[in-house]
Amino acid sequence: MEMPDAMEMIFQSALILGRRGGVEDLMGDAETAALLYSKAAHLLVFLLVEAPSLILNPPFSLTSRDRYRLRSYIEILNRRQGYLRSNACGISQVQRQAMPHLK
Q1: Looking at the record's lineage, which domain of life comes first (predicted)?
Q2: For position 25, which CATH number holds?
Q3: Percent above pLDDT 90 for the chain
C-alpha cells in the first residue's frame, strides 16, 4: 500500500497494535488484547473513512484493493475484540454464579 508518510505511520502503528493485541491474546490477557485490537481498528477506520477527505499534498487516496484490505483488517480486529469481550462477560457471570457471596 503506497501512502503519504503520515498515513503510512498510522497504518504501521495499527499493524503493530494489532500484533501486540495478538500476543496479549495468546498470553491470556484478554482485557489488554481487546484494548489493543480496538486501538488498531480505530486507526484503520480513520484511514478508511476520514483520511481520504483530508486536504493533503500529495492527496491521499485508496485503491479499491486497499479499501477492501482495510475493511478486512477492521472486521477481523472487531470480531476478535467482540469474542474476547463476550468471553469476559461469560466468565464474569460464571464466577458470580459460582460465588454468590460476591454479588
Answers
A1: Eukaryota
A2: 1.20.58
A3: 67
